[in-house]
Write a structure and sequence with these properties.
The protein contains 13 helices and 14 strands. The protein is an alpha/beta fold. The strands form three sheets. A six-stranded parallel sheet has the order 4-3-5-6-7-13. It has a six-stranded mixed sheet with strand order 9-8-10-11-12-14, with helices on both faces. A two-stranded antiparallel ribbon has the order 1-2. β5, α7 and β6 form a beta-alpha-beta unit. The protein starts with 9 loop residues before the first helix and ends with a strand.
């Protein structure tokens, strides 16, 4: 190749030459560039000039540098308006959680089509280690180098409801902007700068409205009591108690860990509620409780209506909460707006609550 002329800086000339090759398709998305030594020899410039050119191309999102692997043409290089997004989920049984699926559906949404390329990374926690903070910190310590070396997105959406402050601090060291999606079990983290889009909805209000509309007299809210109740769930309980009181329907809240299963079944046999609301999505636990209630002569799924507090329930014995398309559209639209802002402005502190209205799918 002819020696470059001194009309622009040498770094700009090398960057422009490489960019033309990318735009013309000579260097397709995912292609590995020559090493810096080879590029220096090809363009007859110094190693430092090549590094300057690569810096310019990286700023324009034309290339991705992968440590110890080389320099590659970015997927967004041939689609300059497309951004790369890492969708990181860390949770127990994430595929059974309807909220997670609402966010994952962003990948196929009309709002994101043609604007974002998504990479999905799911770290699944077992029930045994979901509450083990030390285990999760060790898991993150092993995962963060992989995220840094293998993923070079323009931004990342993180769903990690059981995160604590130290784990949050670890994630904030990632070299790309993050948006935490959803609520944290431990509430907010004062003193840390982070972006978050939380959601507020209260299914108990929907259940209270349903009970009042059908003339039901009593409902029971059952919590397993196997872990501390997070702040956002306490708020749901408090608002739900008010909603049931205003609807004229009695609501009994029971912690199974305190009462025990036998006493709980005896309680329901005596009080005969019209509605039983589970706070857990654990199907095996619910099936065990339902079996015991049937043995006691109750009619779960019939006269005793069954509900699940969080998530859409596919079991026909349960009253399910509807996934409303208009609300998903609103969620996805706002996420796209915030991702655009994350890529453009790289804010470090943005907190927002997206208000949802739940309704029964009857």
């Amino acid at each position: 190749m002819k020696r470059l002329l001194q009309r622009e800086s040498l770094g700009e000339q090398v960057a422009n030459a490489l960019e033309k090759g990318i735009v013309r398709g000579e260097l397709p998305a995912g292609a590995r560039l020559q090493s810096t030594r080879e590029l220096a020899a090809t363009f007859e410039v110094s190693h430092q000039v090549v590094l300057s050119a690569l810096d310019l191309l990286e700023t324009k999102m034309m290339i991705r540098r992968l440590p110890r692997k080389g320099v590659y043409v970015a997927d967004s290089a041939t689609c300059p308006d497309t951004r790369e997004v890492l969708l990181l989920i860390v949770a127990e049984a994430p595929t059974s959680n309807s909220f997670f699926w609402q966010i994952i559906n962003l990948v196929d949404s009309e709002q994101a089509a043609g604007r974002f390329h998504f990479t999905l990374r799911i770290l699944t926690l077992s029930k045994a280690n979901c509450g083990d903070a030390l285990y999760k910190r060790r898991m993150l310590a092993a995962e963060l180098p992989r995220l840094t070396d293998k993923f070079h997105p323009d931004c990342a959406l993180v769903i990690y409801p059981s995160i604590d402050r130290r784990q949050m601090d670890m994630l904030l060291k990632l070299p790309f902007p993050l948006l935490f999606v959803g609520d944290f079990l431990e509430g907010s983290f004062p003193g840390l700068d982070y972006n978050q889009l939380a959601f507020t909805t209260n299914p108990l209000k929907s259940f209270a409205e349903y009970a009042a509309g059908r003339g039901l007299a009593r409902a029971t809210l059952l919590d397993r009591g196997d872990r501390p109740i997070p702040p956002f769930l306490k708020k749901i309980f408090a608002e739900g108690e008010t909603a049931f009181a205003e609807a004229g329907v009695a609501l009994d809240t029971i912690c199974l860990a305190d009462m025990g299963e036998e006493a709980f079944v005896q309680n329901l046999a005596e009080t005969r509620p019209d509605m039983l609301i589970f706070t857990t999505n654990n199907g095996q636990f619910r099936d065990d409780i339902i079996d015991r209630l049937q043995t006691a002569g109750l009619d779960p799924g019939g006269a005793l209506r069954l509900c699940v507090l969080l998530g859409r329930e596919r079991d026909k014995r349960f009253l399910g909460l509807a996934d409303m398309p208009e609300q998903l559209t609103g969620i996805h639209t706002r996420l796209v707006e915030l991702m655009d802002r994350l890529v453009r402005d790289k804010p470090r502190k943005h907190h927002e609550v997206f208000h949802l209205q739940s309704k029964l799918d009857l």
